[in-house]
Amino acid sequence: MNNINEPISILKKYYGYDDFREGQESVINTILEGNDCLAIMPTGAGKSICYQIPALMFDGITIVISPLISLMQDQVKALKSAQIEACYINSYLTDLEIAKVFADVSAGKYKIMYVSPERLDNVKFWEYCRSLNISMVTVDEAHCLSQWGQDFRPSYLRISEFVKRLPKRPVVSGFTATATAAVKNDIIKRLELINPQITSTGYDRTNLYYRVEATTKKEKYIVDYILQHQNQAGIIYCATRKNVEKIYEALIKADINATMYHAGLSNSNRKKNQDDFIYDRKDIIVATNAFGMGIDKSNVRFVIHYNMPQSIENYYQEAGRAGRDGEEAECTLLFSSQDIVINKFLLENKDFSNVSHEDVELVKHNDSLRLKSMIEYCQTTSCLRDYILTYFGENKKGDCNKCGNCSREYKVADMKEQAKWVINCVAETKGSYGINVVIKTLRGARSSKLIDIGAVNYKSYGRLKDETEVNLRTLINQMICDGLLVQTDSKYSVLRMGNIDRLKQAEPYNVKQCKSVKKKAPSNNIKDKKDETLFELLRKLRLRLAKEEGMPPYIVFSDKTLVDMVNKCPKTIDEFLDVSGVGQAKAEKYGDEFIGAIVEYSRNSSKNMNLHENDC
User: Fold this and answer.
1) What is the CATH topology of the domain spanning 208-391?
2) How far apart are CA 147 and CA 189, in angstroms?
3) Averaged pLDDT for residues 6-25
4) Is residue 3 scored above 80 in pLDDT?
């Protein structure tokens, strides 16, 4: 039997897992040896365990700097549910409540204290911390330190000064889900890490299925998708408040159990709507990107982006909120050329009030490069997973057979003549219009706009009327990638001539066109229909217990743990402890209820089977 002071024993006792995930044990050992570290681990990889276990083993307290109140509250609830004493200090607490937390920390009641980076502005907090035995300062969402990153927060820059002012330098650890090489180097520099161990477990979330759908009928797509995935938790991301409200109204009209979240709602409404989703009172939440950072809901089965995000980093983080429990989940991005216009407008009107004057141009340049990569992701016909991995500096692995592009069958067509007509049309527009006008002109559409601008009189008008809109869009996207055309970075993107020398050659101009979509086989870790019934029964039991305790259901047990219960059907506490995600505290607290439900279900199933056999 392992010593309870060993990391693996703590993992089993408090978290209910027999083995560490990739990278966790290495990070934990580095911290326990007193060394700084930076861990880059994808969402759902178990970053919090990497600093929580050392925090339990250190003599002093660990301060965790976390960007959002909702995140620290969820983390503390989860820790307390596992009988680990933790606390937080945020702006929701009164001075009296903060004083009580300070007193309890000084008395040694807590091992982990969560604070926001803004708390470091508080002189009283600095003075108080100087009297504590601080073993470690952990920085969550460490990419917020970097101006090369997508979520730069100036308040994070105070962390290194805070550490330097402490009487004794603690171990400093940083954690993030995403960091390009530039962001990684920036984090190390700004945190002033000393000879840190850098751990990167890779960006490949193998349980996620990525898909890009080029469509102008986004609202219908979303409604149809959700109706086919009923009783599953999902997030719909929109770029604007207006789109959030439009999609929310469409879902309510379709009698879908949904709520919404954006900065235009009152604080109380945002809090209520977020809680409705987290506590499983609502299946779907439609939101802007103001929602999600730090949301630890593990049973989100799908994330749909109504609009293209502004960067691969943003998309990877937002899509990554699906499948945190390791079960299969889908990430769908609905793309149209209008998304490019919206994002360019949003970037042009970005708030730079907290960015120094000399850094504004650098941030704008980085924003532009990230948006370009995001557009390429939406337009590529290659493996989507490979594109993400390559963007973050990992080697290509080839087709994954688990993304929308790899699930499509393509045919290669010589579209040299069609490409010539596209160039002819762009020349006739004198570079004044975007993709949609060019496609409608080539297909001979009858619209008032084409009549007004004189496009119906172009030589190219109607010349490609037999080509589908999808094929023409694919052709134009490839022509942009190959430099034959240029899509401007202006607020309203237009098409202009590029280097057309390639089309003057005798060789064909080959374009990959979607021939058909291979049916994606649904993954289901539940053995059969009977077991799905037991799974739903356990879900209802989990929901009831969560309501009684006023906590999110996933903190009681994740969906993955319920699936393991269904497959193992434990009948005793010892067997219950063998279920993945069941620790000692939760076995003592919930074991009798769940075992009782499983035994009762098995008994009734046996009776029904016997009755059926007698009837036969």
Assistant:
1) Rossmann fold (3.40.50)
2) 12
3) 91
4) no
Helices 357-379, 312-319: axis angle to 10 degrees equals: 70
What is residue 397's DSSP assignment?
-
Model confidence pLDDT, tens digit, residues 470-480: 889 889 988 98
Residue type, 288: T
Helix (H, G, I), strand (E, B) or coil at 1: coil
C-alpha distance from residue 280 to each of 298, 516, 567 (Å): 11, 37, 23
Q: How far apart are CA 484 and CA 419, in angstroms?
A: 9
Q: By three-state DSSP, how is residue 29 classified?
A: helix
Q: Average pLDDT of 354-359?
A: 72
Task: Summarize pLDDT for 580-609 with one digit per residue, the tens.
Answer: 999 998 999 999 999 999 999 988 876 665
Domain ranges of the chain: 7-200, 208-391, 409-517, 529-615
CA distance 36 to 197: 7
- CATH topology match: 7-200 vs 208-391: yes
Give the pLDDT score at 257.
Answer: 95
DSSP state of 120: G
How many angstroms separate the CA atoms of 607 and 519, rounded? 38
pLDDT at res. 382: 87
Q: What is 409-517's CATH number?
A: 1.10.10.10
Q: Output DSSP code: residue 13.
A: I
| Predicted local confidence at residue 143, as pLDDT | 87
State the fold for domain 7-200: Rossmann fold (3.40.50)
**To which residue do tokens 């593990």 refer?**
298
Q: Return phi, psi of residue 503, to 5°.
A: -80, -10
Given a contact cutoff of 8 angstroms between Cβ atoms, the answer to whether 105 and 77 are in contact is no
> Helix, strand, or coil here: 571?
coil
Long-range contacts of 373-377 (CB under 8 A, 24+ apart): 373/311, 373/312, 374/308, 374/309, 374/310, 374/311, 374/312, 374/314, 374/315, 374/343, 375/308, 375/340, 376/481, 377/212, 377/312, 377/315
70, 225 in Cβ contact below 8 A? Answer: no
In the predicted structure, residue 522 carries a pLDDT above the cut 50: no
Bin 510: left if φ > 0, else alpha if -120 < ψ < 50, else beta: beta
Please name which of 257, 94, 58, 67 lies closest in space to residue 149, comparing C-alpha atoms: 67
pLDDT at 409: 80
What's the token pair of residue 12?
């089993």
Two tokens at 609? 């089977």
CATH architecture of 529-615: Orthogonal Bundle (1.10)
Q: What is the pLDDT of residue 147?
A: 67
